[in-house]
Amino acid sequence: MKKSLYAVLSLMVVVLLSAFFLPEHAGEQTEKRFFGALPSLFYMENGGEEAPENDGITLDVYLTEEGKLRSIPLEEYTAGVVAAETPMNYHAEALNAQAVAARSYALYKSKWYSGEGCLSHPEADVCSSPGCCQGYVPPDDDIYKNAIKAAKDTENLIVTFRNHPIRALYHACSGGHTENAENVFSEALAYLRGVPSPGEEGHLRYENSVKMHISELEEAFLGDENIIFLMDYPVSEQIEILSQSDTGRVMDVRIGLTKISGTEFRQKLNLDSTNFLMEFNDEEAIVTFLTKGYGHGVGLSQAGAQAMALEGKTFEEILSYYYSGVSVQSADAIIEKEVVSKA
Ligand SMILES: [Zn+2]
How distant, in Å, are the alpha carbons of 58, 83, 148, 156, 189 from that of 144? Predict the structure, then answer.
């Protein structure tokens, strides 16, 4: 105990002294490397756990459930995302592809690469909410050993486009075809183009049907003052699909007098995907949603990656298939280039 207290105090002295020798206008990269040493201290104070190795990139991760910001070494973070986001019984090459995608997405968001960070928690590079950034669980349990292996086997590798980490979006199951980014989100990205995604039929959510009472549907939109239902008209006549993409995903829906995006409609009703059809039964006041796929459908399909892996494809082949015109390379190599070009 005394020994660890001594180690903590010595480290604090070193950290404080270093501050005086930092250049007055230290660049972002310098600041990140400097503050990267601090979380190890908190680690030792809060329970005496072994501090993780920290000789590379660290990310400031906002842990949503704990409500805490923690600095996590990139490789530990990558394993934790694979653990949280992927079925652990997937093929090793599918998990490897997921690890590289998770690492790329985090670095794309991070301040290391001039990213904007987490939109909900500006002090963080990413948060652990799957709806905002990426899910994360500490990968310290034996059940996550495949996730740790995937991070190790792909150490430091990221997907790049024009030498920059990509916004490596991914989802559970595309329903047979992935989607162009602009049909789901507002921006079009050259590497996020829809491609056929065969072999997903075995996924549990490849097709799904959800029955909902009309009152539930109305309730979902009650709090939204922008949505105006028409008086005295049945709901079945007030909800209409206005436009769909080539892959069948709903892009715009009319509700009463209002037009909303398919993505917003999906979120409000918690549907599996925007690839849906509606069947109304006015007599029973029931609507049935028939959905295809699970998730937003953009970028890498995990179910499709699994199908490719079972066919003998490597993680590089999987990544190059789902992200158009990209390269797979070491994160370190590009960081050095960016630092040099900023100097
Ligand atoms: Zn976030």
Answer: 21, 6, 6, 19, 33
